[in-house]
Amino acid sequence: MQLIKYIRRNIFRNKLRNILTMLSIAFSLTLMTALHGFNAMMNFGGETNSNRVVVMSSQGFAGRVPISMLSRIRNMPPVKAAVPFSWFGGNYEDQEMAFSQFGTDPEEAFNVWDEYKIPQEQLDAFTKNRRACVADKRLADRMKWEVGEKIPLVGTFYPVKLELELVGLFDAPTNTDSLWFNWTYLDESLRSATSGAISGNAAMIYVNTKEGESIPDLIKTIDESNESSDTPTRSTTEAAFLKIFADMIGNFKALIFYIGAAVVFSLALVAASAMAMSMRERTTEMAVLKAIGFSKLRVLLLVLGEACLIALLGGLAGIAMGCLLLEGAHNAVSQFVPLSIFQTAGPWLGYLALTALGIGLVSGIVPAVRAANLSVIDGLRRVI
Amino acid sequence: MIPLKYNVRNLSVRWLTTLMTIVAIGLVVWATVLAFGLTDGLEYSLRVSGDPNDIIVMRKGSASETSSNITDQAAREIATLPGIEKDGDIPLSSPEFVTIVIKQRRNNGGTTNLIVRGVTPIAKKLRPNFKITEGREPTPGINEAITSRKMAERFETLRLGEKLEIQKTEFTIVGYFEAGGSATESEVWTDINDLTSAQKVQGAISIVNFRATDRDARDKLVEILQEDDRFKFKAISETAFFEEQMSAATAIKVIGYIICGFLTFGAMFAAANTMYAAIASRSREIGTLRAIGFSRMSILVSLVLESITICLLGGLLGCLMTVPLNGISTGTSMATFAETVFEFQFGPKLMMRGIAMAAIMGLLGGLFPAIRAIRMPIVESLRKA
Fold first, then answer.
1. CA-CA distance, A305 to A229, in Å (whole number)?
2. Is the CB of B102 less than 8 angstroms away from the CB of A154?
3. Which residue is closest to A227 within chain B, CA to CA?
4. Which of B106, B188, B273, B334 is the best mutation test for A, with the most CBs of A within 10 A?
5. How many whole angstroms from its chain centre is CA A123?
6. Is A106 helix (H, G, I), strand (E, B) or coil?
7. Could you report the predicted ipTM of this complex, rounded to two decimals?
8. pLDDT band (50, 70, 90) for residue A186
9. A27 to chain B: nearest residue by CA?
10. pLDDT at A312
11. Is B273 close to A274, i.e. CB distance below 8 A?
């Protein structure tokens, strides 16, 4: 206990230097927390354990999944509900792709996403009116929409305009930043606009299963039944589907890793040089400690403990600051940062704290060993 | 003025601390330059892609090439319009079919979208410095394709001799091309008829790309294509088209700036720390300098110069460390929804930015310790151990 008190006192002896060291560690760890938080968010989808399956064309997003496939899938035993899910990508007023829009089946959509909540009378309105649409509550907040709002969408991907009316708002666990409308409305508009050239394309089919164990078999059944057709499919779990988007970023992860490694290494150097300075100034003191009977181990622990505590304090402050930053970004622009830090928090925060501790250990080891092996006579004689 | 030699000697006396600070600053500058090299590379590949007299004709309302379609008849009519550059008798007007397929990156890099473009032989004349660097051009009618070396290294089934599957049709890769580092190098090219038959949309055309003879002809053509009842298309210059695609690159750039900002702060504190220590252990010396008549200002300048020197050395080191990475290619689908492969670009401008950043670190990191040192009364500083 005496040891800890001594370490604590030492840290605040040269306030300026140690605060500077802590600040440099804090700033860099803020950055690392933000980067890793972003990374964790990108990978978040990969960890959802929903029972959903996504059926898309084997050719990817530009491919075609005929709507006739839907009824076949609905009849498969493990399937609870299935809906078409067609990305519209329209412009709203003057804003290009301000949010995502999907054409789906109003009757079944909330059985596929059964964790999304919508009041019953709003759902009824959605199913009754072909031009009705529903939106994520947070999207409606952002766009300042009320129920009853007219929402015109001009297609970029499809050559049609949709005149939608907002009839309901749903609550989802994360900000989906999306609007759902009736797929049939899209299909009919497309048919009349292109005289039948583009129609009957579900684009994607989202399936909810009764239980997770049946998913691998279901995926196999669906893909095999379409293999020799004109429109082969590629079905994946929802987690794997979301990973496709995370993958798109490409070498982002490697970049984070390299920047992170460079930052950690340079921090270790900074902290080490600060620690070496502290110890040089205290050579006489260390010799006195040894002269009055402190063992080598105790002196070693004393110096190491000081280095670790400085790094850890700076590191924790940095991680806290990084978390605040992520949470602030989530509150300010939740369409880009859809997850709160409370959802993405995980072991990686712990690893970051360990990294800070590691920086302390590395920076303290040389001065600590030096101090432990210091000869008492030399130390007492040395003039700084 | 205090001679510079004084500072240099000082740095070499405390060589270990100096070296540590230099390396630390160097790494920080390295990481920042790396982040900017990435965004600059991405921007370069999109910017070099456009020739201002090249026009892309798309369906009105479509935002990307893949969602556009143009009738065969309209495409033929476009080619006959006056004002289009000719190569001999053939107008430089290229009907192209563009599709994206989802493919696997090598080394478990995940899957992503890949642009496949069906073209006629005219297309290559509309791309900057297009040339086949290895293998040969694809022969129409027998499902052959070409791509860039960068793409071949990045995606499975894209190396010479390998077969790329599109809707159950296999396309053999027979050559690699280069196109001046433009976004074209992120695509796979094949014959337009082969690709549309594989996709079972025979005769489909996504866009028409043509080159106008000059600016006036270009403006007139754009007007005809946008307004004339025969067409009513969206006609934009390639430069503007790629400018649009660049908005996502801007997002990456913002991330770059954030990274740079935080690292600069972190490194600044490190530099300040070194200078505080250097000055604290020298207070007697500084007192002596004042006592023998050096002005406060000249001592301040000397100390700040010392700090800037350390940081500049670090900045140089950081920039040097990026040299081996120059030209390494990487890719992302964040910008255009399909993989854009590009090279890290560490031009002199970027290097200057890195060095400038280091100088700022040195200036701010040295200023405060120096001010503290010169404000100390001479007697007190002389008395100090």
1. 68
2. no
3. B168
4. B273
5. 30
6. helix
7. 0.72
8. very high
9. B266
10. 94
11. yes
- Measured CA to CA, the distance from residue A128 to residue A138 in angstroms comes to 24
Q: What stretches of B127-201 show up as alpha helix (H) in DSSP?
A: 149-154, 192-198
Which of the pair, A258 or B215, is modelled with greater confidence? B215
Q: What pLDDT, in 10s, does the model give residues B274-306?
A: 778 777 778 888 888 889 989 999 999 998 999
Across the A/B interface, how many CB contacts are shorter than 8 Å? 174
Q: Is B129 exposed, middle or buried (0-12, 13-18, 19+ CB in 10 A)?
A: exposed
| pLDDT one-digit tens code per residue, B17-63 | 788 888 888 988 888 888 788 778 878 877 777 778 899 999 887 77
Record the tokens describing residue B23, joined without a space: 């390396």
| Residue B378, CA atoms < 13 Å, CB-side half-sphere | 10
Asked whether the beta carbons of residue B113 and residue A61 sit closer than 8 angstroms, the reply is yes
Q: Do A31 and B200 touch (CB under 8 A)?
A: no
Q: Please, are residues A200 and A68 in contact by the beta-carbon 8 Å criterion?
A: yes
Kindly report the nearest CA distance between residue B245 and chain A, in angstroms.
12
What average pLDDT is seen over chain B? 86
Which of A20, A263, A384 is closest, CB to CB, to B272? Answer: A20
Residue B323 DSSP one-character state = G
Residue A303 to residue B57: CA distance in whole angstroms: 70
* Distance (Å) from the alpha carbon of A250 to chain B's nearest alpha carbon: 5
CB < 8 Å to B67, chain A: 89, 156-158
Question: Given its phi and psi angles, is residue B104 left (phi above 0), alpha (psi -120 to 50 degrees) or beta?
Answer: beta
For residue B67, the 8-state DSSP code is G
Q: Work out the pLDDT band at A125, boundaries 50, 70, 90.
A: very high
Question: A59, B269: Cβ pair inside 8 Å?
Answer: no
